[in-house]
């Protein structure tokens, strides 16, 4: 913005005094910015870019169900084989909730492990974002998760964006921090799509698994900002290619007081429906474009990327994106073979494994991208640690 009466700024504590000129008199206006230098300041024609706090990723954690289902196991249910599935998707195993296991429990485990790595107490968390399309409770699960983790001072809510959920949650967290007042945010990606899979459909049942992953995002100064650039997009016209829509069961009563179809139909959800070819075309086209836009915002070339971390949907999609961005295979993070498509959990799950294995180190630049139902997609260029 241009403010012709602005002379400059003076910092006192975590506030800035804006020095202005009006009617020939210099006066002071308190303007809280929470600790970031302005991009420019000067005389009455200065251009002032107001930017809040930065964000950094300082901890991660993950959790998966105990039951592992292999391609050979699936071949006993539907007409398929390990060779057929692996060649087309890169998947060999997936984890599935069973017995008394719940998605909430996985989310709590992942969150506690992220806090432990970050060395942050649960009661120091200000906000919990649960990115999931399959909560245990239709009304959302964030409040239950934060209560069980022990985040006594936090507020929480769910973000529903399927396989793009974690990226959208991560960007949302940085915006809360940039707005001021928020210090620590848990971003949890968790999904249990196995509950909505038609296990007689070999086109979809081979793809999905259950998991949870989490990161701790913490406020920091401008010079430490770990979100270097991002891009988020959506196109509702593509919803027909990947969805899990609400279905209805007719009520026993057809008319009440002359009103047809009352009481209302009871709602439930259908199985996941996907046009694999169209989703593949969408992903290999839009994901590299999204990463390129995020890199452009960050002012970085693709060669500056230390790691490419995509939503783990299909190895052919991951390979195609890496090829377009000219990123060598040894810089691509993939654990798809072991877990399948875990939706919003896939990126933080793969990140957690890579960090704990010593692959991803402090200061590494990661290009992360999520994409899926909605259709939604988004990318973030982040620095770890």
As for the CATH topology, it is Peroxisomal Thiolase, Chain A, domain 1
Q: If helices are DSSP runs of H or I spanning 4 or more residues, what is the number of helices?
A: 9
Number of strands: 20
Provide the gyration radius in Å: 23 Å
Which strand order do you get reading across the main beta sheet? 4-10-9-7-8
Looking at CATH, the homologous superfamily is Thiolase/Chalcone synthase
Count the domains. Answer: 1
Question: What kind of sheet is the major sheet?
Answer: 5 strands, mixed
Beta percentage is 25-35%
What do the pLDDT scores average to? 84
How widely separated are the two ends?
32 Å
Structural class: alpha+beta
Uncertain ranges: 1-50
Order of helices and strands: EEEEEHHEHEHEHEEEEEEEEEHEHHHEE
What helical percentage do the residues reach?
25-40%
Shape category: globular
- Provide the CATH architecture: 3-Layer(aba) Sandwich
CATH class: Alpha Beta
Structure overview:
The structure is a single chain. The protein is α+β, with helices and mostly antiparallel strands. The chain has one domain (53-233, 277-384): 3-Layer(aba) Sandwich (Peroxisomal Thiolase, Chain A, domain 1), CATH 3.40.47. 26% of the residues lie in helices and 30% in strands. A five-stranded mixed beta sheet has the order 4-10-9-7-8, sandwiched between helices. Strands 11-20-19-18 form a four-stranded mixed beta sheet, with helices on both faces. Helix 6 (276-298) runs parallel beside helix 7.
């Amino acid at each position: 913005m241009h403010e012709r009466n602005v002379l400059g700024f003076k910092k006192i504590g975590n506030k800035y005094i804006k020095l202005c000129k009006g009617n020939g008199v210099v006066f002071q206006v308190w303007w809280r910015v929470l600790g970031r230098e302005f991009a420019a300041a000067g005389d009455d024609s200065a251009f002032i870019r107001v930017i809040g706090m930065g964000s950094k990723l300082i901890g991660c954690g993950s959790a998966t169900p105990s039951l592992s289902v292999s391609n050979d196991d699936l071949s006993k249910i539907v007409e398929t084989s390990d060779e057929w599935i692996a060649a087309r998707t890169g998947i060999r195993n997936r984890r599935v909730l069973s017995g008394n296991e719940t998605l909430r429990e996985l989310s709590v485990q992942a969150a506690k492990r992220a806090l432990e790595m970050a060395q942050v107490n649960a009661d120091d968390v200000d906000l919990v974002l649960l990115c999931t399309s399959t909560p245990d409770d239709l009304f959302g699960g964030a409040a239950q998760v934060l209560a069980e983790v022990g985040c006594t001072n936090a507020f929480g809510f769910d973000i529903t964006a399927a396989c793009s959920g974690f990226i959208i949650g991560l960007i949302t967290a940085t915006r809360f921090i940039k707005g001021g007042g928020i210090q620590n945010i848990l971003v949890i990606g968790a999904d249990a799509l196995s509950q909505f899979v038609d296990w007689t459909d070999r086109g979809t049942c081979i793809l999905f698994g259950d998991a949870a992953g989490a990161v701790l995002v913490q406020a920091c100064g401008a010079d430490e900002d770990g979100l270097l650039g991002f891009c988020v997009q959506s196109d509702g016209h593509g919803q027909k290619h990947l969805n899990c829509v609400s279905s209805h069961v007719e009520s026993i009563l057809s008319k009440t007081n002359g009103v047809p179809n009352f009481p209302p139909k009871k709602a439930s959800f259908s199985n996941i429906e996907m046009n694999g070819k169209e989703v593949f075309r969408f992903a290999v086209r839009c994901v590299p474009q999204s990463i390129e836009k995020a890199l452009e915002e960050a002012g970085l070339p693709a060669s500056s990327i230390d790691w490419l971390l995509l939503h783990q949907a299909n190895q052919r999609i991951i390979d195609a994106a890496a090829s377009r961005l000219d990123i060598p295979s040894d810089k691509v993070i993939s654990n798809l073979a072991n877990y399948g498509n875990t939706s919003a959990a896939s990126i933080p799950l793969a990140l957690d494994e890579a960090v704990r294995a010593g692959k991803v180190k402090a200061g590494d630049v990661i290009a992360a991208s999520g994409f899926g139902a909605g259709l939604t997609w988004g990318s973030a260029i982040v620095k770890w640690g």
